[in-house]
Design brief:
Chain A: It is a multi-pass membrane protein. Chain A: Pfam families: TauE. Chain A: It is found in: Cell membrane; Membrane. Chain A: This is Probable membrane transporter protein. The complex is a heterodimer of chains A (246) and B (78). Chain A has one domain. Helix content of chain A is 80%, strand content 0%. The mean pLDDT of chain A is 83. Chain B has 78 residues and is mainly α. Helices cover 82% and strands 0% of the residues of chain B. In chain B, helix 2 packs antiparallel against helix 3. Chain B is elongated and about 50 Å long. The chains are: A mainly alpha (246), B mainly alpha (78).
Chain lengths: 246, 78
C-alpha cells in the first residue's frame, strides 16, 4: 500500500510541475522510478502512459477554453507519427552518444536563449511546412534516442517566435499521439503492473489538471518560458550525468 | 460542445475572478480566442459547431473581464 502511495504522490508532483510547462513528466519520472528499483522497461512504459494521461487532461481543458488550435497541431502530429518509428529504426545504425551530446548542446543553448532573450514574441514562422520539418526532425531524434518529443519541440517553436503558452497548449495535444503508440509497443514485451498503472494514471490526470490551471491562470508567457528553460536545463544535466557515466 | 465549454468555464470562473490573477492572463486568453476566430473566418469556417463554441467562450471571458474590472477595482479602492 505504502508503495502505491509513494508512486502516487511522486507522479502527482512531477506531472503538476511539467504540465505547467506543457510537457510530459516521463523525462523526470522514468529515471526516478528506475532508481527506486522498478525495471527500466516497465518504468518507460508507465512513463509513456503518464505523459499521455496528463497531457490529454490538459488538452481537453484547453480545447474547452478555446485556446487549443487543433489545426495548428496537425502537421506536427502527422510528421511525428511518421518520423518516430523511422528514428527508432535508425537507432541501430547511428551512434547514440553523438546524438545525445548534440541534444545536450541544443537543450542548453535553447534554455539560455529562453532565459536571456527579451525578444517580443510574434508568430512569424507558422507555415505548415515548417511544422512538418520540426515534427519530422523531433520524431527522428526522439525515436533514435528514446526521449519524449515535447521538450524538443517546445524550444524550437519558441525560438521560431511562437508564444510560449500557445506552444505549450499545442504540444500537450501532440504528445499523446507520439506516446500512446510507443506505450502499446512496450506492452507487448513488458510485464505490466496494472494496479500501479491505475494509481499513477489517476495522479497524472490530477497533476495534468492542476498544472494546466496554474499555467493558464497564474503564469504569464515569460514565466512559462523561464519555467521551460529550467526544465530543459534539468534535462540537460540528467543527460550529461548519464553520458559521462557518473 | 458549446454547452460543455460553458459548463467548464462556469467551474473555472472562480480562478479567473481571483484578483491576484494578472489582468494579462485574461487579456491574453481573449487575444488567443480572437486570433482563432479570425483564422476560422479566413478559412470560411464560421458555420461550424467549433466557431459557435468559440463565440460562447468569448462572451464568457468578456463577462469574466467585466466582473474582474468591478470587483478588483473595488478591492483596490477599499
Amino acid at each position: 500500500m505504502e508503495y502505491y502511495v509513494i508512486y502516487f504522490f511522486l507522479t502527482l508532483a512531477l506531472s503538476t510541475l511539467f504540465s505547467m510547462g506543457g510537457v510530459g513528466s516521463a523525462i523526470g519520472l522514468v529515471p526516478i522510478f528506475s532508481m527506486m528499483g522498478m525495471p527500466l522497461n516497465l518504468a518507460k512504459a508507465i512513463g509513456l502512459f503518464i505523459n499521455s494521461a496528463s497531457t490529454i487532461t490538459a488538452s481537453i481543458m484547453n480545447f474547452f477554453r478555446g485556446v487549443l488550435d487543433i489545426k495548428f497541431a496537425i502537421p506536427l502530429i502527422i510528421s511525428i507519427m511518421i518520423a518516430t518509428p523511422i528514428g527508432a529504426w535508425m537507432s541501430q545504425y547511428v551512434q547514440k552518444e553523438i546524438i545525445e551530446w548534440v541534444l545536450v548542446a541544443f537543450l542548453v543553448v535553447s534554455a539560455l536563449l529562453l532565459i536571456f532573450s527579451n525578444r517580443e514574441q510574434k508568430v512569424v514562422y507558422d507555415k505548415a511546412w515548417i511544422l512538418y520539418v520540426i515534427g519530422a526532425t523531433v520524431g527522428l531524434i526522439s525515436g533514435t534516442i528514446g526521449v519524449g518529443g515535447g521538450s524538443l519541440i517546445m524550444p524550437l517553436l519558441i525560438l521560431l517566435g511562437f508564444d510560449a503558452k500557445k506552444a505549450a497548449y499545442a504540444i500537450s495535444f501532440v504528445i499523446p499521439f507520439s506516446t500512446l503508440g510507443a506505450f502499446a509497443t512496450y506492452l507487448s514485451f513488458v510485464d505490466m503492473d496494472w494496479t500501479l498503472l491505475g494509481v499513477v494514471t489517476v495522479a497524472a490526470i490530477i497533476g495534468g489538471y492542476l498544472g494546466d490551471r496554474i499555467m493558464h491562470y497564474r503564469l504569464t508567457p515569460s514565466q512559462v518560458k523561464k519555467l521551460i528553460a529550467v526544465v530543459l536545463l534539468l534535462l540537460a544535466i540528467k543527460m550529461i550525468y548519464k553520458l559521462i557515466g557518473a | 460542445m458549446k454547452k460543455i465549454a460553458t459548463k467548464m468555464l462556469e467551474n473555472e470562473k472562480k480562478d479567473a475572478l481571483d484578483c491576484t490573477v494578472s489582468d494579462e492572463v485574461v487579456d491574453e486568453w481573449l487575444d488567443t480566442i480572437e486570433e482563432r476566430k479570425k483564422k476560422m473566418q479566413e478559412h470560411h469556417k464560421t458555420d461550424t459547431e467549433q466557431y459557435d463554441m468559440l463565440l460562447g467562450i468569448e462572451n464568457e471571458v468578456k463577462e469574466i473581464k467585466e466582473i474582474r474590472k468591478k470587483k478588483c477595482q473595488k478591492k483596490q479602492d477599499d
